[in-house]
Amino acid sequence: MAKVYHLVTFLFITLNFAFLNAKSVTPPPLPVLPLPSYSQLKWQQRELIMFLHFGVNTFSDSEWGTGKENPSIFNPTALDANQWVDAAIGGGVSLMILTAKHHDGFCLWPSKYTDHSVVQSPWKNGHGDVVKELVNAAKQRGVDVGLYLSPWDRHDRRYGRNKQYNEYYLAQLQELLHKYGDVKEIWFDGAKGTNAPNMSYYFSDWFSMVKELQSTINIFSDAGPDVRWVGNEKGFAGNTCWSTINRTSLSIGNDSVVGYLNTGDPRGTDWLPAECDVSIRPGWFWHKSESPKKLSQLLEIYYNSVGRNCLLLLNVPPNKKGLISDNDVQRLKDFKSAIDTIFSTNLAEKSLVKVSSQRGGPNSDFGPQNVLDSDHLWTYWAPSEDHKHHWIELTAKEKRLKFNVIRIQEAIGLGQRIGRHKIYVDRKLVASGSTVGYKKLHRLKNGVIEGYSVKIRITNSRGIPLISSVGLHFDSFWNPKQKSGQS
Fold first, then answer.
1. 162-179 and 203-213 helices cross at what angle (nearest 10)?
2. CA 441 to mean position of chain CA atoms
3. Among 34, 134, 222, 403, which residue's beta carbon has the most beta carbons within 10 A?
């Protein structure tokens, strides 16, 4: 009997100790709403995706087709979607968005609702399907696909008659989202010529249909609901760029809100991150007279898009043969190589890290070491809510650190928080900024700097700041004496 009593007592003490010990583990802080969805988080982590503008404009040497083009001009003699995918992978791209239909109304798939498509072209004797070829090539290589179906249609006679055209558009939308498997992003815009017929798009109906057919898709438009336009076609976000915004203040095709789209809103009730669209060439469609942007220009765009809490959508148009031109392919490779060279090494990885405070004390899961690990989303430093002044400091163990780029990332899974920050090197202010979000890149205006300590002060934040990653990098391609930089 005594043995049983001692055993029960031992078990009681052990379980009670375990219970008390479990209670001592500090939980994560409450999120600051709104929050991203799973699909939005996956989208943000891509950082760089590709647009493919291709169609009759490629053969008519124009940007906006008239809708009166004869389908017989569409005849790519060597179309190879595998080559497109190879180019994308060489550029570090994991999602490719194809213009299934542009403003001219010509469809790159054999839609049963119109003859103005590849069916009437000489390409493959009218039996071709560009959408299918891309989907098949991408699937084999593990690359995702997105589609653009232009709302403005300059060919179809139903355009301008609200009910009839919206039925037509929805029918084509269903075709694309039924027939071609998993689509990760669908692109809508409000582009329309000044002389276009009056037309009301039933965007709410379209969006509801999209979500019914593809539950994990992200819908892009000026007003989301998942991804918003950045407000220009230069690929530049605002110095301040919140992923939060009020959708009720937005409307598709409204030029008066482009500034609001560019910066977002710290008081926004909707998580609607910005996508920066820009072409690798001056035009969106391929033109023989044009060449790709210089590497320095692409890097400038990268710092002002991905480096400002956005995703970069880079257009790379196939040529008349149906191939991505060699100089574009090489520029993509050079671009990826440059980004890898700059960011593959974190010069701060062996630094000592000190912080103003730590949530839950020194033995909690929210310590400063989290900012130097490989997880840039779900491990993070969290300060104590009892402290008002928040900072994190990296100190070199031996020789001075030499760098010209400073990277900061927030744990956006719990909301975007930081509204203002300053960076000091050996107590000297070298950079300052507002928002951080998924990623903030400071390319230092004065070029390379050396120092023993780098301190980041958070001077304004929605709740306590949660920093998931900090990096110091050396950009050998950056020479501020040749061109002024963006901080």
1. 20
2. 15
3. 134
Instruction: Show contacts of 209-217: CB within 8 Å, 24+ apart.
Output: 209/170, 209/173, 209/174, 209/177, 210/173, 210/177, 210/186, 213/174, 213/177, 213/178, 214/177, 214/182, 214/183, 214/186, 216/38, 216/39, 216/182, 216/184, 217/39, 217/177, 217/183, 217/184, 217/185, 217/186
Taking 60 as the threshold, does the pLDDT of residue 213 lie above it?
yes
State what percent of residues in the chain have pLDDT above 90. Answer: 92
Q: What is the pTM of this model?
A: 0.94
How far apart CA 354 and CA 182 sit, in angstroms, is: 45
Q: With a cut of 70, say whether residue 373 has pLDDT above it.
A: yes
Q: Are 15 and 23 in contact (CB under 8 A)?
A: no
- CB 305 within 8 Å of CB 236: yes
Rounded Cα distance between 250 and 22, Å, is 47
Six-digit token string for 338: 């440059």
Q: Which helix H or strand E contains 337, and what residues bound it?
A: helix 326-343
Contact 142, 93 (CB under 8 A): no
The closest alpha carbon to 253, from 141, 152, 331, 145, belongs to: 152
- Token pair for 301: 């765009």
- Length of the chain as a residue count: 487
Distance CA 219, CA 213 (A): 12
Bridge partners (DSSP) listed for residue 125: none
Strand 428-433 versus strand 453-461 pairing type: unpaired
